[in-house]
Amino acid sequence: MHSLSVPELEGIINGIRKFEGAYIQKFYELGNNAFRIKVRKEGNANIFFEIGKCIFQTKYIKEGTHTQFEQAARKRIVNSAIKGISLLENDRIVVFDLQGKENVKLIIELFGNGNLIIADSSMHILIAYKAGMLSGREIRKGNAYCTPAKGEHAKNAVSELAQLYNLPPLYIEEAMQRCGIGKGANALANDELKRLEAKAKEVSDEIKSGKGYVYLDKGIAVECSSVELAKYKGMEKREFASLGEALDFAYSTFPEEKKESKAEKGLEASIEKQRAYASQCGKEIKEYNEVGNAIFSNIYIISQIIDTMRANKRMTAEELQKLFPQVKIKGIDLKNKKVRIEIG
User: Fold this and answer.
1) DSSP E strands, 204-256
2) What residues in the chain have per-residue pLDDT under 50?
3) Per residue in 38-81, pLDDT tens?
4) Separation of alpha carbons 77 and 24, rounded Å
5) Are strands 54-58 and 104-109 parallel, antiparallel or unpaired?
6) Closest CA relative to residue 97, chosen from 74, 73, 80
């Protein structure tokens, strides 16, 4: 699914601003760059976000993974009050202003190689989900937080329209499709540009309407959008009153990765040991069966050797070998009354 655009985020942020004044009860790391914040304000609610992708209120509860980052973040933000929720510099960066034992900012980056950062009130980094050089910035504890530098983009009519209406490629492609312009078109005539501008504005207005659509393939969401998309025509579609509700439903369709508990891991290890033991026992049983069959097949000559040794307790191995050439006499232990033989 596409990363949310600024206009889409503005609508979602307006929806979750109702949690301003709420208190953070819990913070969970869910794995795969996803997180959940449990808040309390006239009842409990949950906010889900995936860095680099999206944020929305959720009713589907997934448990945390109990990581070091989760524990470190909890120490900083749990029991803090949410004083404000906003977009930073009109970009895809959501900032929660928190007030607690210390005033901090929870910074959620929702662009490509995004990050999750907790900074102090002066925007110096306290902890970061990802550290190091990211998007042209050095993310380190103590460094001042800064947004990525804006890259230079090729100037053409399509890119200028995308910038004018703040639309991602998914929606520019939709505008082009609505006015019959091919996706790979480079140069556009004046009348095509006018039609494309009209459709881009149409798409932008539909985003502002706040609706949400989910497109499904075999029950699993493949895209979630603020407008109806021609590219998915004929695919199963669900419509929702808001994009946040649509996103919440879309994420609920994804198969959940099975997480093994410590008990399950211990049980699996025990089962593997039992399998290895059973395999070893199977080999030993086979060997014992072969020995038993050999003894049974040669029981007559073995009985004769035993009778001979009982009758002559001082017989040597060489003497016994001459009497029974059909077997190999390996040795005689007179003290312990044992004869070792090899049966061919």
Assistant:
1) 212-217, 220-225, 236-240
2) none
3) 999 989 999 999 999 999 999 998 887 889 999 999 999 999 99
4) 7
5) unpaired
6) 80
